Amino acid sequence: MPVITCIDDLKRLYRRRVPRMFYDYAESGSWTEQTFRENSTDFAQIRLRQRIAVDMTGRSTATEMAGQRVTMPVALAPVGLTGMQNADGEIKAARAAEKFGVPFTLSTMSICSIEDVAAHVEKPFWFQIYTLNDDDFNRRIIDRAKAAGCSALVITVDLQILGQRHRDLKNGLSAPPKLTIPTMLNLATKWSWGLEMLGTRRRFFGNIVGHVEGVSDPASLSAWTAEKFDHALNWDKIRKLMDMWGGKVILKGVMEPEDAERAAALGADAIVVSNHGGRQLDGALSSIRMLPEIAAAVGGKTEIWMDGGIRSGQDVLKAVALGAKGVMIGRAFVYGLGAMGEAGVTKALQVIHKELDTSMALCGETAVTRLGRHNLMIPKGFLDGFA
Ligand SMILES: Cc1cc2nc3c(=O)[nH]c(=O)nc-3n(C[C@H](O)[C@H](O)[C@H](O)COP(=O)(O)O)c2cc1C
Predict the structure, then answer these.
(1) Is the shortest distance between the CB of 310 and ligand 1 below 6 Å?
(2) Which of 306, 347, 338, 344 is nearest to 27 (CA)?
């Protein structure tokens, strides 16, 4: 068993163990991937202020996200096809999150269905829905999430149309993979992944296949999704989805203060400053750069979270210090899952937690809730360099 000390170690293992098609699916952004890259590199520009001789006993990284007690201010982001990164991936990630005391969000585009995940965990998880133009499907899936006991609905508002990721097109991404010669040659080097996949029946989009008439294979599914993303989305339709749910709502994918104002006015319990991990509008600024402006505009009215580029506990610290009540992580937990299954997700959470706790202590803070701008050094022009 290799010694894992950081998220990058998990990423290296992940790359070795998972078929190229699914590694590329996660490890890519849209078009030039500028936003995908800057989500991470912008974190590195922010520095921490070291303090000394501060009593660091009795520290706590615990806080609340949308009224839910969490071990640290980190939730697992919705990630489509998680069950292709490792067999039964959504169930494994949900179990790891539950044991660690952080929320898990199940994507609509998951491999394991809502009911299946619910049957394998004890506490409620969150469910993510896309803004589709099919009220009947929306109502049915929302009813299924309610019946499964989901405790919050994450509405992703930045995917009315799909950003192009070149590698997915070149690889012919599908679930399960189409057996072309290059795919078969690559699969031949991924034995443990293949054996585990053969051992599960969960290999299709569990929330959709069997629940939508006429969708039975990858080709009919992609035709269905392309047709269903709501190009005519507006604020009234978002409100309608919120009303259908009637419980806690998190709006994910907000990048402008004006949009954040609208989202807060609708009564969202939290807003996630997010550019979908750089997978949608390439050329958008990184989430960490947009966070302070949005937090300043609406931080008093609702909870502000962020995601995009978080690969360490220090990144979590920086986001919280810049005004996020919590963050979501996508790729960081996927690397762990692909590398080592449930144990790998736990490892990713442990790594991030330890880094957060130690960095907090060295910054002279004993509670994550007391982090603020005073803990950071921010280069001139970082926050107002773009007009
Ligand atoms: C492989 C992959 C699949 C994703 N699928 C979804 C999805 O189904 N629904 C959604 O709202 N966001 C999805 N996202 C975006 C994540 O929820 C999150 O915003 C993003 O991963 C954060 O960036 P990070 O990966 O750098 O942490 C996906 C991201 C990745 C990397």
Answers:
(1) yes
(2) 338
In this structure, is residue 149 part of a structural domain? yes
Atom of ligand 1 nearest to the CA of 107: 8
What is the per-residue pLDDT across 319-377, written as a single tens digit (0 to 9) for each? 999 999 999 999 999 999 999 999 999 999 999 999 999 999 999 999 999 999 999 99
264 in any annotated domain: yes
Tell me which residue of 339, 345, 340, 257 sits closest to 304, measured CA to CA: 257
CA distance 171 to 28: 12
Determine whether 376 is exposed, middle or buried from the number of CB atoms within 10 Å of its CB (0-12, 13-18, 19+). Answer: middle
C-beta of residue 288 within 8 angstroms of C-beta of residue 42: yes
pLDDT, tens digit, for every residue of 182-215? 888 888 899 999 999 999 999 989 999 888 887 7
Out of 41, 102, 279, 287, mutate this one to test ligand 1's pocket (max ligand atoms within 8 Å of CB): namely 279
Q: Is residue 358 part of a domain?
A: yes
> In which residue ranges of the chain is pLDDT below 70?
217-219
Q: Does any ligand 1 atom lie closer than 6 A to the CB of residue 311?
A: no
363, 318 contact by CB (below 8 A): no
Among residues 275, 291, 274, the alpha carbon closest in space to that of 283 is found at 275
Q: Are 316 and 323 in contact (CB under 8 A)?
A: no
Question: How many domains, in total, are found in the chain?
Answer: 1
Cis peptide bond N-terminal to 379, omega within 30: no
- Bridge partners, 90 (sequence order): none
From 27, 79, 84, 110, mutation site for ligand 1 pocket: most ligand atoms within 8 A of C-beta: 79
Task: Please work out whether the CB of residue 308 comes within 6 Å of at least one atom of ligand 1.
Answer: yes
Domain that residue 188 falls in: 7-376
Q: What is the mean pLDDT of the chain?
A: 95
Q: Cβ–Cβ contacts within 10 Å for residue 117, how many?
A: 25
Q: Could you give the CA distance from residue 89 to residue 337 in angstroms, rounded to a whole number?
A: 7
Tell whether 386 is covered by a domain: no
